[in-house]
Amino acid sequence: MRDATTPTADEPTDAVLLAEVAAGMRGAEPAFVALYRRRRDDIYRFAFAMAKSRTFAQDVTQEVFLNVLENAARFDPAKGSVRAWLFGCARHAVLDRLRAESRWTDDVPELAAACEGEQHVLTQQRLARLHAAIARLPVEYREALVLCELQELSYAESAIVLECPIGTVRSRLHRARAMLAATLHESERAPEAPAAPSAALSPSEVCS
Amino acid sequence: MNDDEDRGLTADLAALRGALREVRASQADEARLIAALRVRRVVAEPAAAATAAHAARVPARSARRGRAPFALAATAALAAVTAMLALRVEQAGGPEVPAAAVLPDASEGSPASASAASEDFGAFQPLAFSPGLSASQSYSVVRVRIPLAALTPGFAAPPDMAIEADLLVGEDGLASGIRFNRADTLFVSTASSEIGERR
Questions:
Q1: Do B20 and A61 touch (CB under 8 A)?
Q2: What is the dihedral of CA B133, B134, B137, B140, to 10 degrees?
Q3: A29 contacts in B (CB within 8 Å)?
Q4: How far apart (Å, rounded) are the C-alpha atoms in residues B191 and A19?
Q5: B13 and A97 in contact by Cβ < 8 A?
Q6: Which of A26, A150, A175, A185 best probes binding to B when mutated, by most B CB atoms within 10 angstroms?
Q7: In which residue ranges of chain A is pLDDT below 50?
Q8: pLDDT over 90 for what percent of chain A?
Q9: Total CB pairs under 8 A between chain A and B
Q10: Radius of gyration in angstroms for the set of CA atoms belonging to chain B, rounded to a whole number
Q11: With the C-alpha atoms ordered A171, A176, A181, A186, is the resulting torsion angle positive or negative?
C-alpha cells in the first residue's frame, strides 16, 4: 500500500485509535485527535479533488469525522482498512452533496491560488486546467481517477471504497484517463475558448 | 490515446498529485470536532460525574483565569435542556440573541449551513457560566443530538429518543450559546405531559 501517513511502529494504528473512539471513554479524545490529524488531509484532498472547492472539501471533511464520532463502532476490519473506510464515508458525503447541489464549483481557480508564489505560471495553468477537466468527468470515473491517481490508493483499496470489483476500478480508471486526455486535447486545440473551470454544470454532468 | 499522450497525462497527474499535497484541511475544524466529541462524552456519562471528573482535571490557574472548562459549559447546556423540558418553558425567557448577529461562520454559503438555517431552531440562548457573546468573535455551530435518557432521569424516555440542539462554540472551544429544534422540544414537552398525566 502506498500510504504516506502510515503510522510508525511506536504509534497506534488507525484501527486501535478508532476502537478507542468507539469505546467512548477517557482515551477517546486523544485517539480521535490523533486519527483526525493523521487522516484529515487525505479526506480533504479527496473532496477537493472531486469538487474543486475548498468550502465543499471543508464540509465533507467535517461530515466524515462527525460520522466517525457517531459510527466508529460500525467499522469492520474484515472489510478493509480504516483509511478505506474513511474514504468510503467521504465518497458517500461527496456524492450526497453533488446530488443535492446544481452549482458546486467555486468561482476561484483554487489550485492556482494554492500554488501562488511559484514562478511556473504555465505549469500552474496546465494543472488548473487538468483539475478542472477532472472535475467535469462523470462522477464514477472521476472518483476512480482521484482515488487511484491522486490519492494513490491501491486498486484493492479503491474497490473497497467504491464498492465494486477490482476489474471495474481498472476499467473506470482506463476510461477516465481516456476521457481526460480527450478533454485536454480539445482544450489545447481551442485555446481561444478556454474551458471555464468554474462554469455552472448541469446536474447530468455532475452526477452522470 | 497514444503512448506519448499517455505518458504526458501520467506526468501531469503526478504534478497535480504533488500540488494537491500542499492543500491542507483547515485547522479551525479541529476545535469544532473536539467540541462535538466532548459534548458526546459528557452526555454519555452522568452529568454530575462528568463535571466532577473534569473539574478535577482542570488546573487551578485555568480556573482563576475565568476560562470555564467546556465540560462545565456543556453541562450547563444540559442543565438548561433539563430545566426546559421539566418546566416546559417556551423559548421566550431570557435575552435572545439573533442568530444572524453572532453566526458569521454559519452563513458562509455552504449547503450544510444553508440547510441548517432553514430549520426551525429559533434563537440562541446564552449559557450560564459562559464567557458571554461578542460580536467581534467568530463562532462555530456544532449540532448535537442529546439522548433524553441522559438528560431527564425522571422521564422514562426510550433509549433512541434524542433532542437536536446547536451549540455555539467560540474560538477558545467554549460553548457560549445553545438553541433547540422547536419541533423536538414541542414533541418532548407533549410526551412528558402525557406521561405525567398517566401518573
A1: no
A2: 30
A3: 34, 37-38, 41
A4: 36
A5: no
A6: A150
A7: 1-4, 103-104, 106-109, 112-114, 193-208
A8: 39
A9: 103
A10: 22
A11: positive
Q: Are B78 and B100 spatial neighbours (Cβ–Cβ below 8 Å)?
A: no
Cell numbers at residue B31, please?
Answer: 476545535
At B59, list the grid cell: 488546573
Interface of B with A in 7-66 (CB under 8 A): 9, 12-13, 15-17, 19-26, 29-30, 32-34, 36-38, 40-41, 44
| CA B191 to chain centroid | 24
Query: pTM, whole model, 2 decimals?
Result: 0.57
What is chain B's mean pLDDT, rounded? 61
Tens digits of residue pLDDT in B87-136: 433 333 333 333 333 333 333 333 344 344 445 677 777 776 676 777 66
- What is the ipTM metric for this complex? 0.74
